[in-house]
Amino acid sequence: SLAVAAPSFAQAPLPKLVTKDGKHALMVDGKPFLMLGVQANNAANYPSQMPKVWPAVKAMHANTLEIPIAWEQIEPVEGKFDFSYLDLLLKQARENDTKLVILWFATWKNNGPQYAPEWVKLDDKRFPRLINGKGEVKNSLSPHFRATLEADKKAFVELMRFIKANDPDHTVIMVQPENEVGAYSAIRDFSPTAQKIFDGPVPKDLLKAMNKKPGTWKQVFGKDADEFFYAWSIGRYVDEIAAAGKQVLPLPMYVNAALRDPFNDQDPFTYSSGGPTWNVLDVWKAAAPSIDALAPDIYMRESEKVRKTLEQYGRPDNALFVPEIGSDKAYARYIYDVLGHQGIGFAPFGIDYTGYSNYPLGAKTIDAKAIENFAVHYRLLSPMAREWARLSYEGKVWGVGEQEGGKPETIDLGGRWNVRVTYGEWQFGSIEAPWMAKAEKQPDREIPDAGALIAQLSPNEFLITGYRARLTFGSAKGERFMVSRVEEGHFDDKGQWVFDRLWNGDQVDYGLNLTTLPQILKVKLATY
Ligand code: N0T
Question: Which residue puts its alpha carbon closest to atom 16 of ligand 1?
Fold first, then answer.
């Protein structure tokens, strides 16, 4: 056989979002990557703040930092670009062995153009704002004006050029064009320019995607017409910017969403209308083919709502990615739900020591204690992050965060086996057993903080880990079975499994109790 020498151009492979059989992986350095992220506060994007950011990234055991780059920062004067901050950020990220997600704060940052340069946000004539249904001019730029789109696109392309030229090893793994796009207190732009487009025909691509017959927006979409029109308009706008950036450097790009009520129809006047909320995901998919994922920013604490949101955004045609979630303890357990829904990444918002906190959305203060609420999970997961990402992409995985009240639940593991997850147990006995009635309750059970992960390794073999949860395997069909082998081990720094010991006796008699220690088990089931 011929031994062909590998070519010597050691170009690192480009990060990429891939999909196979409806499952997704974020490929980094050519292999599935699990992003254990943090997002820095909005105004953390200056050299003066970085010494307050990196220690928080370290304390979290995060592998990725999401951080803004503001349009006003790179193009303070039209046509004159300054990438000194990004240059420093790239160097420091490499020194800190941390990947980056760049957040492009430009035309829209939570509906407004606050991060656009003054030459944009103070020039109403050239860059018109929208007019809502009541005839009020709002502080949100309209997506219907070419000048705004061209200006934003030009700056974004410069940004991507800088990344391409200065990041050959792909420290930057994803880019988020804009931030929580859409408009508050307006369903769409009602300016004469917008109205004219609205009164025209629905574009063919959208008709096809939504399986609709031709007509005007009102005729085709009825009561949803205003919001669908706005979602389409913003989607096309963002898509053109993303596509131009990808021409330069095709990094994965996603759009983050300020959410609406996950269960009920909510008046779009009361949320960020036009953004990729669950009711317009198909509109966005058709409008923005250059966008790899539509991603929920989660600021709801109830597990019912969070789980519903994960179902809505984790689809065969949409990789689940949570680029923002609240920073207090009640949110930390959702890492397990996100991974259970084959999520590719997770990032609590506002994690740095710059002194800001967004309570009541998140924690009252961001300090070592607040960070530790998440770090316990990242410490557990980071040595196995690559392995988990591979199993999630190629195999079958499950995961649950503790629900309110520590409600137990049983997970079906594909037909033959199931596993019951219970909380608040001591390692010995069962809190449901009458003879345990006098035992004390487990401490620190007010805020749910537990969770469990399960991955199938072979038909009768599972990898499990988690935090403060008991896992009890069962036979779905009532077969006579036993847990025949429970191996505790860990992943070394190359991601190789290392055997530590077998669990047996007390360690297995009352289910498999995962505590606050980082424990990973390989469990074999057998019938007799
Ligand atoms: C987020 C963050 C930052 C249930 C808020 C959340 C970030 C942006 N917006 O700190 O501004 O840049 O993406 C909006 C949440 C709306 C309130 C939901 C109440």
Answer: 258
Name 510's Cβ contacts closer than 8 Å, sequence gap at least 6.
425, 427, 428, 429, 430, 470
pLDDT of residue 4 exceeding 90, the answer is no
Q: Is the pLDDT of residue 45 over 80?
A: yes
Ligand 1 first shell, C-beta below 6 A = 42, 110, 179-180, 258, 297, 299-300, 324, 349, 358, 361
Atom of ligand 1 nearest to the CA of 358: 10
Residue 466 lies in a domain: yes
Strand ranges across the sheet with 481-491 = 397-401, 451-458, 461-467, 520-527, 481-491, 497-503
Q: What is the pLDDT of residue 5?
A: 53
| Structural domain range at position 471 | 401-527
- The domain tally of the chain equals 2
Contact 401/337 with Cβ under 8 angstroms?
yes
The answer to whether 431 and 388 have CB atoms below 8 angstroms apart is: no
Ligand 1 pocket test target in 42, 181, 299, 300 with most atoms within 8 Å of CB: 299
Question: Quick one: 315 and 215 in the same domain?
Answer: yes
- Torsional sign, CA 452, 457, 459, 462: negative
CATH code of the domain in which 464 resides: 2.60.220.20
The answer to whether position 333 is within a domain reads yes
For residue 37, give the CATH number of its domain: 3.20.20.80
CA R_g for the chain: 25
Question: For residue range 76-95, what is the model confidence (pLDDT) as tens digits?
Answer: 999 999 999 999 999 999 99
Q: Which of 298, 312, 335, 368 is nearest to 449 (CA)?
A: 335
pLDDT at 8 over 50: no
For residue 519, pLDDT over 50 is answered with yes
Q: For residues 405 and 364, state if they share a domain.
A: no
Orientation of helix 146-166 relative to helix 84-95, angle to 10°: 40
Which atom of ligand 1 is found nearest the CA of 68? 12
The protein residue whose alpha carbon is closest to atom 13 in ligand 1 is 180
Q: Are residues 477 and 523 in the same domain?
A: yes
Same domain membership, residue 431 and residue 320: no
Inside any domain, residue 244? yes
Is 6 contained in some domain? no
Q: Does the interface ipTM go beyond 0.90? A: yes
| Residue 228 structure tokens | 């669908």
For residue 180, the CA-to-ligand 1 centroid distance in Å is 8
Q: Measuring from atom 3 of ligand 1, which residue has the nearest CA? A: 42
